[in-house]
Structures are given as C-alpha cells and as structure tokens.
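Morning, I've got a small favour to ask if you have a moment. I'm working through a protein record and want to make sense of it properly. The fold is given in discrete form, as structure tokens running alongside the sequence. Can you walk me through what the tokens say about the fold? Thanks so much in advance, here it is:
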Amino acid sequence: MNSGDLLLTDNPDWDSGTAELGHMFKPGELDLSHKVVLYLDEITVSFDGFRALNKLSLTIDAGELRCIIGPNGAGKTTMMDVITGKTRPDEGKAFFGQTLDLTRLSEPEIAHLGIGRKFQKPTIFENHTVFENLELAMKTDKRVWRSLLALLDSAAGDRIAETLQTIRLTAHADRLAGLLSHGQKQWLEIGMLLMQEPRLLLLDEPVAGMTDEETERTGELFLTLAGKHSLVVVEHDMAFVKQLGGKVTVLHEGSVLAEGALEDVQADARVIEVYLGR
C-alpha cells in the first residue's frame, strides 16, 4: 500500500460494515462502497434568525434520480447551496460519498470532485457554437498549449459527439448557441455539465419556460442519464415529476415533510395542506 493510501478504518466516520469490505481509498477520491453518493445529516442554516434549513437529513443513492418538491421558502435552494459549498451550515454534516466532507471544501473544489449544478436560467456562451460551448466546458487543462493539443485529440472529439447525441443537438453543432430555443439552451447547459464528468447533478427547475414537447424530451434525457449519474431535480411541475418516477422528497420549513413515491406524497394530508392544496 502506498503511503498516500488510506483504509476506511482510518476515517473518523468508519463503521464495522465498511471495515469488513477492506476497502482502500486515496484522499480526495469518491468512495461509493455504501452506494450512497450524498449524505446530509441534520443540516441547519440560519439567516438573521430565520432557519432556512432545520435539521435537514437526506441521502441520495449512487445513480438515483430524486425529485425535490415543496413550497417557496421550503429550503430547496439553500440545500443546494450547502451541497455546492456556496453556504456553510451552522450545524450538521454533508458528505459526498463516504469520506468527502463538503463543509470543508470550497465551491471550485466541490465542482472538481464531480458535483455539477444547473440554475434555472441557462448560462451558455451565446456567441459561440454549440460545439465550441461543449469544447470550452471540457474538463481539461485550459492553458493554451494543452487546449491546442485537445483540438487534435480524437478522443475529445468523440466525447463531444457523444454528448451532442445525448442532448439531441447533433444537428445544431455548428449553430450559434444564442440562436437556440429556450429548451435547447437548457439541454446545451446540461451537456456542458456532462463534459465536466460529474457524478452528481443538481438541477433547479430545469423545465421552467419549456414547451410541452421540450419538457417531455427533457424527462427522457434525465431518465437516460440516471444510473450513469445521480440526479437531484428541484421542480414544481408535477406532470414532469410523474414522468421521471422514482422517489420524491417534500421539503417544508427547512426539513423533510414527506418522502416516497409521488402518488403517496400527493395523498399525504400534510403535503396537501402546505403545498399541493394551494
């Protein structure tokens, strides 16, 4: 074993089940031996006396597609801010995999580890082509010489072509991004995130402003990505949430109010009172 390698028994959060696996990891390496990619434990965040998150506990499995719903002010955005390092919790733990403590890392460090976040409004380079946007987003050394070599790298071209196919923009590869429809711009930004090779994607109201057809195609895209990536989707469109299927978490006043299949949470009297009934 190299001096830089550690056993999970050296981890302060070690447990006997992990020890039996004899799993070995390197510092900074994502460890999914327990099949959990994200672990939030009693996260509390207060702003001027207001508790945006109140002992929030949540786990996301590796490869899972989870929808997060809830009324405005429920803590959905603050939760994502904590995960990405934008906001530091007052209390609680946040781990990426078994060993990576998100509360001790900066936003760039968290992004580099493999957590990508998409905001409601797409952020793309409108004066560049779709292909160039994906090329600029590629996880590679951006110094001039390395960038020139990347242009000659057939593997890089193959990755871009594969991503174009995934987001269904192959026919628009040479089109200026600013000329795309709203839905296509959203897909392009998702493609740019995919070029960063994320393990976890945080998607904030991704179908807001989309046509019905674009919304359906976005659902198909997310279902394709699930398994290869873990997705956390914050959304208000219940038809879209139904299309995605899987587990739904309802947040209210900064903590989990209900969790389960969509039909179960929709039938929950507490959820109807604070969210769906409004």
The chain has two domains: 30-114+199-278, 120-197. Confidence is low (pLDDT under 50) at residues 1-23.
